[in-house]
Amino acid sequence: MASTLIVDVADGQISLVRLEGRGRKALVTGCAVMPAPDHDAESDALPQSLPQAVADAAADLAARHSLLADACVLGMDSRLAFLREYVFPFSSHRKIDSAMRFQLLEESPVPLDDLVLSSVRGPAVEAGTHVAAAALRREDVRAWLDAFDEAGMPVSGMKLDMDGLAACCPEAGPGRVVAVDMGVTRTVAAFMDGGKLLAGRIADMGEQDVLEALHRDCSLSRDAAERTLVFADMTEGGDSKAGSAEARATDCLRQGLENLCAALRRELALFQRHHGFWPEEMVVGGALSRVRGLKGVLEKHFDCRVRLWAEECAPAGAYDSVAERCGYMRAHGLANSLGRSGQSFDFCRGEFARSAGVTLGSSAVRRAAVFGGGMALAFLALALATAHSRSRRADELQQQVALVYKKALGSVRAGLSPMQYESIVRQRMAALNASRNADGQGSVLDVLAAVHGAAGAAPAVQLGELTLDRRRVAFKGTAPGFDAVERLRAALQESDLFAVAAIKESTAVNKGEGIRFAMELERVR
């Protein structure tokens, strides 16, 4: 069965979602997420090393989680794109393309020849045909595609993260819907009418700004601010005692969220002024959507129905927990967009098209093809007779190679090509050597010993999945209560191997059965 890997590199994250099958019958078979190499997405200058660093990190993440697939689709940050909306008084594709290029020629900050254009036709309006246009720098498109080719993950489609928002919730219906990603560094809103993308808006506020408000106004450390996001309850009548430190932190968090809501409301007001209507429904995801009670805060500020994607839209069983789902809304939407022909941006076109069909037109061409086919069959018969013995020997060698890889890579799923197995081996050896040689970081065994030693000292803490790279260690587990998780975090914070130990998720399983948690450690550099 054909498989596709979605690689979302927007908002300082690398999110991977692997699908088996095509269209509505496609199933999510795996996912993984990690921080991307540092880069300011708002900067016009794209460091030459960044695409390759991100591609290598994505390939390593896919290999470690056995997510490699037949095809790869890349989701880019919308802040790298030049976005515009137009209404043309005609519906011809040729006329719309010509008119759009003429408009962009007047408005683009760079020469049109330096851009790769893509467009999405929206619903028919009284004035004509609505078109959403997007453009990426040609040199950026080439750099990203070349980087993923070099990493062994050729890209078959390049889209914007906004496409993922537009398709994240197909069951939202034909009404006027806005999908909002409250991310780490920015908040993106995609407006739809009748299931088709109308426009996108970006507010330059996100989780980092809320954390900064907690640090500035409540004098909380970065780690304490992170814990406030995880544990604070924004619902009306929460159990925080008035005047307590917890109540003050909750008030600061509420103020930070209200500031972000005010910025988002300004973007919605601009949309309403241009399009003449206010959305009927808001679907919300992203890093900040894990805050408990956020739905009530949004319903207070926006006069529309609010749904949290992780709780009400994400497919059951596709992701482990509600907190984990928050980071996959864009990537899951990009997976859904693969079945929406013509309803999403794609910059793998023209000179960057990854495949091309062959059409046999005239009778002369067809006769030539038949003659060439006959000659090819004759040579093929001769080649088959000569290569039969060689084929048997090659099969034996291939079986021996597969057996060696199976013994060396027992945790990786079977059925990969020898080149993919070789890539996984090289990446793991490079990661192991880097870990051994890192100055002051300690070896992989040192890190594992420190984590398991701290867990052994904490009462009844069970560790589960663990991943690590040069910068971070992330793992999940279960514990009898929040105090045990905090003691584990404090013990790891005292280790010389880790600069920061932070709780990223903490969720009660069932009453009396403990909690699930996720923790991230930043290694000493």
TrEMBL record:
This is GspL periplasmic domain-containing protein. PANTHER family: CELL DIVISION PROTEIN FTSA-RELATED, ETHANOLAMINE UTILIZATION PROTEIN EUTJ. Signal peptide: none annotated. InterPro entries: ATPase_NBD, FtsA/MreB, GspL_pp_dom. It comes from Pseudodesulfovibrio senegalensis. Residues 366-501 form the GspL periplasmic domain.
